[in-house]
């Protein structure tokens, strides 16, 4: 079979997980646990196999012919508006499908053990499969509208998964918050599509080159509207508020959403539509500054978080800021490179956090941990690899990708952006070291009170099924933390390996030989104009990470103080309260929505809708009823009244006739 024929079968990549979702929704309870989990894992695994085949088929083609649009069908036909349901396989979409399905398979496998004992076990895996299928439609779509279909699919699945344990009010609220916040961004994406169709006449990606023939104002408007859509999905300030609360979902959901799928969709969209940013004079600058501010903002908030998953949530927001910084300065390949390495080490960190929660019987507060490396050696070892990677320590993957972004910012003379990114990198190394030391090193604070391990749960709380999985059939664990089962630590080991070697995708040495990803994607890149040499910038980036780590070790080498005080947070004084409240952005938005927005909504409801629109409709009905009631009184049913009326009418007619003759 030829390479083109193989690429025409790209529709199988999203079909396998979609099929798995349908089967599990219909027959999941009959399939039961753990077969439902393994079936879902097999479906996403087959999708990964198809992605690998598509990659090698695409790679066998000449570099200038590496784009294949599969045969499909007409999806929408309305006048001159036509959208075909077809999949585009090119280096960008192939790269996305590889890490989405690869990391997704490991997360599915991890979930088999993590979700043990859950009453809705099969439904959870149905949602995971549907999420993966939607993400694959998003990245493989040959048009903006087909991408938008997958875009909305991952939005729906994020709501279902974040609020999966909806018995807890916090989880239900978090799901709604994610859904509503993303609708704000979707509004921008829809307006961009309307404008593109109006000016270009098609939504197919094959017409992206038409951006160069549009007026500057139109190109900028389209680019910024697309960016608004990306801000919602990829949690950029101020539309980031949904992502920290998304931690209410099961930990595998956090890993899937924050590492390999939903949050990377915004970055993918901007890279896919890069022509509109290339031809705009100002859109890229806006993207870069929003990304840099987001990176610094989220890194500062992560400094004072105590929930092990919430630290990683703000870390995700910060790393996404780096990706948008790369896109904004025209370093598209660097942004995709960091997206891939981030998928490796962030999935590793989230799943490692889930393993800690598992071993600690549902405890998530890092202040109640400590010394866990002795009890959870595999989790600790793999988590440490993820920590070194995100901190930018050589030779781990995060060093190479983050260093490339900062180097591109410097070489294009965006020195202020480079400085902000460097400070964010310093804070990243600090708060991640703080997390590692509080969780795996120092005194065993969890011994202070057995109640802290979650064995005495208030009646109003909902116990995560992972707690039952942790103790079921394993009474020898007692109250002590313990290592996770093999279904959970095997994915950790695999992701740790990818985190260690992932930087080899785009090493900066001997460009013609080692810049594999850069040459594979063949995306337009910003041309360096000035700056320090690559070795000097890499050395500075490494030094920044090392300084951040050493500072954190200085503060936390003995853990917390005897009275439970956090030594570094204490140094912040009153400013710590600002960071604990995330700079009051979430609070400010909540007050704005509950105040002016709610008041305006009430005005529209009571003043415009009820008094205006409903009043006019009801008024017409009332007038008809009253006039009908008045006319009804004339119908007495008495013959003499009708005879009198006829006589009076006759007299009036005679008078009218006489008057007309006289004049």
Please, could you describe this protein's structure?
The protein is globular, with a radius of gyration of 31 Å. It has 27 helices and 4 strands. The chain has helices spanning about 5, 10-30, 35-60, 90-115, 120-140, 145-160, 170-200, 215-235, 240-245, 250-260, 265-270, 275-280, 285-300, 310-330, 330-360, 375-390, 395-410, 415-440, 465-470, 485-500, 510-515, 515-520, 535-555, 565-570, 575-580, 585-630, 640-660, and strands at about 70, 75-80, 80-85, 90. By secondary structure, it is mainly alpha-helical. The chain has a two-stranded antiparallel sheet with strand order 1-4. The chain has a two-stranded antiparallel sheet with strand order 2-3.
